[in-house]
Design goal:
57% helix; globular
Length: 375
Amino acid sequence: RAERYHQLLMPALNLLLALVTRIGRDNLTLWLKAARFVSQHFGVLESILKEVAIPANPLSIALLTEAKAISSLVFYVARQRAVVDRESSLAGSGYVGVGSLHLPMLALLPKFCTSSNWIRRLMTTNDVERAQAQISAASIAGVLSSDSNDGSKDADLSGGSIKEIKQSLFGHQACELVDAMIQNTLSYAQAITEQPASIASADASRSFRPAFSWSIEHSRESDYMPSLATLASFVRRSLSQIERAKRIRQEKLRLAKNSAEMTTADLRKLIAASPYVELSDDLSTAQMRALASVLLSQQAQRVARNTATLISAVEQALVLLWRHISFFTSNLNADSDDLYATGPASSRHQPSPMTIPSAQEREMLKSDASITLPP
């Protein structure tokens, strides 16, 4: 029965996500029905998010796919003010909804966005996945959740290192799912701390609900619940990944234009590593060079897309850092034990507005930046 339920869960989630993203922008009835779906299936959605976050539990593509869909739905529904107001009015009545998934959502960040150790938990569940685990896809690996220099102990793994798993087509699919989960969770955290459009409006009294604890330095608690140290670690790790992705993209574009520099052995290795092209023995050197140029250009485009996703996530993380630091510095006497309260917090207010740099100052900051992003 449980297996049958999960077989029906993904089609239902996919249908709901398609509805709320395509036609639900101004459809209040649809948003309330989406919130009702979350409430009615709360137990299952919560258990999936918790199962993904438990370090001792194995991870499968099916489980990550469900967690990605759930994190997407929670983000979309949680940013609707009508849904938030309705749940606030039901607080204390025993109602469970999107707000009740707050902690399971945020608990994903310490497990996935600060290291690649989660890859140790990956396991194949069918013949297709086992075959994909043997196919190299190092050239199209995800950016957000993968990093060759994140401090993971690759050599300690049995049956293959973290690097080998990430370089397989199976690992690439898992990295893309985790990338999306990280993006959804950061977007959710940003949505629930969103300031009103106008500080002077009637909504300006809206309570500020910090999503992260105040610790800016990593501690043991940061491994279980997100803190500002989690965001700082993610930003620091991501900046090195962006720089690395920039170099990879430039090198692939250079080789795409100058494939004559590649030896025949390198050409065969490149083409054979692509999961989408079958290398024929009767290809001439000129044909292999033309094919290699196309593959390298496609790989550069994938790296650029993944990097753009990472840059967006870094921007969200920086905004979250600013909002929380502003809040904590203006509320030094706040009770840190109440940071994760799910009910209304009338004593907390939005962080006071900080000075926004002028256009000229922003251009100066851009010109001084050590990282130049591709167009």
